[in-house]
Amino acid sequence: ADSYYHLNQKTEALVEYKKLSEIYGNPYMEDALTRVAEISYDNQDYQTALDYFKRLQLQASTIDKINMARLGVLRSAFLMNDNQTTINIASQIIEDVASKTDVVNEALYNRAKAYINLNEYDLAINDLNKVANEVRSAQGAEAKYLLALLWFESGDIDKSENEIMEFAAMN
Fold first, then answer.
1. What DSSP assignment string belongs to the chain?
2. Does residue 80 surpass a pLDDT of 80?
3. CA distance 154 to 119
4. Highest mean pLDDT among 24-28, 110-114, 134-138
5. Average pLDDT over residues 62-68
């Protein structure tokens, strides 16, 4: 599996890593789960990536691998519009005091978008307000835009206009 991977033969590597991930007690389990999740994600097979990132999250032996798995679950679920999984894993990431600021912001943004999909606008606005403070990032700028849009769609033109003016002043 590793040889195929390093020769950039990802399809063949994926088959072999999947086989490894099915062997109970396999000392290479973490690596196999990581590679299957990674290759599947890169191939835009988000369901498989999600499944393997979840398995990795449960079997990871280090905090770094657990954090990588959680981020993989977040991104895969988000891209699949799996709103409940996105909200659940984002909440775990946000509540973890060891999570890095950029990862927390990504989790807040993704959770807000999931809340919007579920018509939970108050919860979305709460998350978007936390991300919108930093408009130099793509997520921060998008959060500011979404806030203005949500206020506009709810009929609160003054708040919508205020968001736009704040955004302009921040740039």
1. -HHHHHTT-HHHHHHHHHHHHTSTT-TTHHHHHHHHHHHHHHTT-HHHHHHHHHHHHHH--SHHHHHHHHHHHHHHHHHTT-HHHHHHHHHHHHH-TTS-HHHHHHHHHHHHHHHHHTT-HHHHHHHHHHHTT-TTSHHHHHHHHHHHHHHHHTT-HHHHHHHHHHHHHH-
2. yes
3. 12
4. 110-114
5. 94
Q: Which residue is listed with tokens 């770094």?
A: 64
pTM listed for this prediction: 0.90
CA atoms within 13 A on the CB side of 37: 26
Rounded mean pLDDT, 15-32: 94
**How many Å is the Cα radius of gyration of the chain?**
19
